[in-house]
Amino acid sequence: MANFLWVLFGIIIIAISLGTISLKNQFIKELNREPYVSDSAAAAPTVSTDTAPAAATVSTDAATAVTTNSLAKPASYATCAACHGQNAEGMKPMNAPALAGQSDWYISTQLHHFKKGIRGKAPGDITGMQMQGMSVMLTDEQIKELSGYLSSLPATKVTKTVEGDIEKGKTLYQNCLACHGADGAGMVALKSPALTGQHDWYIENQLLGFKKEYRGYHEEDIQGKIMQGSAKMFIQTDQDAKDLAAYIMTLNEK
Fold first, then answer.
1. What is the 3-class SS of 146-163, one letter each residue?
2. d(CA 45, CA 156)
3. E strand or H helix at 49
């Protein structure tokens, strides 16, 4: 009950910070909507046992957990590997985040957002524009395959690269608890992604991206708008982003 009240309180605070109750209502409506599924997609797709372990399955519902068995690498990942790495570990020179172990529903949602221009079209977002250009070539089936494969991989073992004040970052993270959890594992019910297993430099860049409105600019990106409002409220300086990223890195050690 206490956890529920904290989550509810966090949502209300964020909705108020955005200055509109209607956004809160949109968010609640969004929570009840399933992740993107194509019109022709089956309600419960299965993975061929010829190319993947029989126990491995891909979830199409945000409330469904994915197994930890790695699925067969889709042919479409060959293009992704150039930036994200052969094991989806991410590459800083390409500004490409780690994708291994992230929730399939979150990866699917973001790829669809890129494909539809809901993400990656903001002026100045060079990396986002590159991803947007790549995603438009993906079919719904390929997005489903990629999301399942990437989520089945073991999470990337990230190392510290950002210098920040961990104690100040811990204080800032209190504003993130309601949606991302004390352990940074994310919350499926709130469609909040895991922060652990992600590079600190990418987390720092995305926090600043939300603050600068590179992310959350589109009216259909409800979660993005909520994060944008939070970043504008709590990330007052570039150093704040570094401090928060530095603290989130410590969650990988727990």
1. HHHHHHHCCCCCCCCCCC
2. 27
3. none
Distance of CA 49 to the CA centre of its chain: 29
Residue at token pair 């890195």: 249
User: Tens digits of per-residue pLDDT, 107-141?
Assistant: 999 999 999 999 999 999 999 999 999 999 999 99
Residues 41-65 pLDDT 10s: 433 333 333 433 333 333 333 333 3
Report CA-CA distances (Å) from 219 to 26, 112, 124, 224, 234.
10, 15, 19, 9, 22
Q: Give the domains, in start order, of the chain with CATH numbers.
A: 2-33+159-253 (1.10.760.10), 77-152 (1.10.760.10)
Query: How far is it, in rounded angstroms, from Cα 10 to Cα 27?
Result: 13
Report d(CA 241, CA 155) in Å as an integer: 23
- Residue 92 near residue 154 (C-beta atoms within 8 A): no
